[in-house]
Structures are given as C-alpha cells and as structure tokens.
Amino acid sequence: xxxxWLSFWFFLAGTAAQxxxxxxxxxxxxxxGPLDVVLADFEGDVVVSYASSAVLARQIQQxxxxxxxxxxxxxxxxxxxxxxxxxxVPFLAIDWC
Length: 97
Hints:
Blueprint: E1 4-12, E2 23-28, H1 32-38, E3 46-51, H2 53-61, E4 68-71, H3 74-84, E5 89-96
C-alpha cells in the first residue's frame, strides 16, 4: 500500500504594506475550492492569489506583497521563509492511501 503525504505550509511573509485594510493571501492552486468556501464570508477583507507554489514563491521573493503564503510544496515554502527571515508552521497534512 502506498501512502501519499500532502503537506501545506504557511508563514507570514511580512511583505505587505503596514496598516493595509485587506489580508493578501498567496495560496497553492489546489486550495482554491476549500479557501473560496471558507473565505466567502470575508469578501472584500481578504484578497487571494492562486497559482503553483513555485510561481507564488518566486513572486514573493521578487517583492510581491503577501501577508500569508499557503504552499503545497515544503521546499518552496522553506526557500521563501529563509529569504524573508520567517518560520514555517505546518497547518495541514493529508494521509491518502
């Protein structure tokens, strides 16, 4: 039996403008469905940009303003965390068989 582990990591990127009225979230495209449902009640307060973890990581490294990065790839999350001087915190692990 094979086990597939899917881990999402997040960190506060700290690149967004101080005092902004909206939370800017960069999220892995695989989270679009669940996040859209969860964030429906926060319309206007949260702006989400969906793409691959690699694309989002590169954008953050180049200065894109993100308050929260939800990555489906630990390596990309670690790379960005190290470059921004922040810590990773796992928030979801899925065990598929």
